[in-house]
Amino acid sequence: MGSYSIASGSYDGHARIYDVRTGKTTVDVLAHPVTSVRCSSDGNALLASTLDGYIRLLDRMDGKVLNAFSGEKTVSGIGKPKHSYRNSELRVRSVFAMGDAVVLSGSEEGTAGAAAFAWDVIKGEVIAAVPVGEKVKAVSCVAWNEGVGDWAAGCSDGKYYGVFWGEFGAGAR
């Protein structure tokens, strides 16, 4: 997205992109309150998180849904709890990572607790779910450092949780 555009999402279920040069507004109707918007690095796609528990990848030109991200992931093998992506009440931010090949997001607490999630952009599959603790109500934001290859997650209890690096969920510092 060029420096002349502003992307926004709102509780009315609309994602909007404003072109400040021309005054034109592009509107995508998502029908659910939007908690986060992020443009891809080339500006051709918009990532929109909504309170229906989905993160949608939209084509900026025509608003077509290119992919949708949700789902669950078993964290530590057979019989271990599954972490389900959930976003139904709180503002949860989502971002692109690894050169726009991965989507990262936090999640509200589910049956197995809150977690940070990673999805493959093309396949739409959950590639990692990193639990953050049983007492955490939500992972409200995530950040990615492309230069270093690290990602961090912030939790709703206001405490710093950790920085993850390498393969998603490989370790915390």
TrEMBL record:
Q: Does the keyword Nucleus apply?
A: no
Protein's GO biological process: mRNA splicing, via spliceosome
Compartments annotated for it: namely: Cytoplasm
Query: Where does this chain mainly localize?
Result: cytoplasm
Q: Name one GO cellular component term.
A: cytoplasm
Q: Is the keyword Nucleotide-binding in the record?
A: no
Q: Give the transmembrane region(s).
A: none
The protein's UniProt keywords, in alphabetical order, are: Cytoplasm
Q: Which InterPro entries match?
A: WD40/YVTN_repeat-like_dom_sf, WD40_repeat_dom_sf, WD40_rpt, WD_repeat_MORG1
The family annotation for this protein states: Belongs to the WD repeat MORG1 family.
PANTHER family assigned to the protein according to its UniProt record, in alphabetical order: WD REPEAT DOMAIN-CONTAINING PROTEIN 83 (PTHR22842:SF3), WD40 REPEAT PROTEIN (PTHR22842)
Task: Output this protein's name.
Answer: Anaphase-promoting complex subunit 4 WD40 domain-containing protein
Organism of this sequence: Penicillium freii
